[in-house]
Task: structure prediction
Amino acid sequence: MLSRFFKAAAILAAVLFAVPAMAQVNPGRTPLSGAKGGTNNSFMQFSGPATSIKTYTLPNASDTLAALGQIQTWTGAQSFADGKLILLGSSSGSSTIKAPATGGGTATLFPGSDTIAGLAATQTLTSKTFNCANNTCTVRLGSDVTGNLPVANLNSGTGATGTTFWAGDGTWKTPTSSGNVTGTGSSTVNDLALFNNTSAAGIVSGGYNAQQLPGVIPATFTVTISNASPAVFTATAHGRSLGDTVYFCTTGALPTGLTACNSSQTPLVVSLNSNPTLYYVIPVNANTFQVATSLANAKAGTAVNTSSVGSGTHTAFANAFACAGCVGEYIFNITPTSNANVPSNSDTVFNTISLTPGVWKIGGSAGVFGAASTTFSTSHNSIGLGITAICTTPYCGTMDWHVATNNSNGVLWPFTEIILPVFSTSSLNAVCEPVFAVSTATCFGELHAVRLH
Result:
């Protein structure tokens, strides 16, 4: 009886090893135990497929099986087929993570909680730094840039000041049409800048003084003049600027070293027969100034010295005449009827003024004046550059007239004003040729010129 039991057990064991394992139709409800169970005596139950049998291959190593419904830590690399790694949204939707078709790499996620930006979607990025050194970055200045660009980002801020601007050549520049202009020359109060090239890149010294322009309002005031080196002129609140022109008339005598206008009437009535001597102001303070003999000397601070105290009341006439060489310069000379007698039927230069190079408008008058018994028949009169005889060249201002009566007082005729270019310093002369009988006669009249350029 016992031998038959052992024989049956041996046959059953052989069958169990030879026949493949059959799936459980009804899952077991009793946990496995022992070496085939868990660390103690529990083992999770398996739920088989609803229909046909499926085969699952376990790894050929000791490991832990991952549960779908639990948080798992993967220590080994896991590979998923293309399009098989799908992440589900918290409520709906899903995202499929795909690798490139070829090649590959490592994508490192950022620490902390954030949102991944999509390349094709519009995203709002905050506090991000873009590396444009090795990438192409396109920035729309009209819509992508706000606020001020740091000055240090433009040429490291070298040359950047409150009066410069960023130029297209990548440097900070000083404006050439506004603000302060720098150049090779030094600036002088009341001077207008002279540019040394057509691009106005710099200025040079020797600019015109603002007081030299036509339209400056003249001023008249009384001054006292010291006997000093240099002489000091005192006039309360004189209002003079560097380079203002000024001449002086007096009821007595100016201090030695100064030339007065040719009028000494009392009370002072200025009636000039020719240009007064012009001086140029060097301001000292609100109530005193010095004078120079030229605009250049005024700018250099070279003042006039005096060597006597003078006498009488001295009156200054400021800005009544434009400076020598300036637009608006006016030169004149009057030859009175008291001029010396002239011979009959002979050319005589009876008036002259000196003109420097430039464009001038010239004009004047010419007349003859005789004694009580003088009888004039004709008189010819001309003005021209350097002429000493009646002019026969066109445009030199020739004028002829004829007197047929016994008019001892003579006649005065004007010269029509003309514009005359002067290329070198020249004398503008007035010439007369009167024809008279019985007694004596003289030529008289006026010459003037205004600088246009």
User: Anything to note?
Assistant: The CA atoms of residues 188 and 314 lie 29 Å apart.
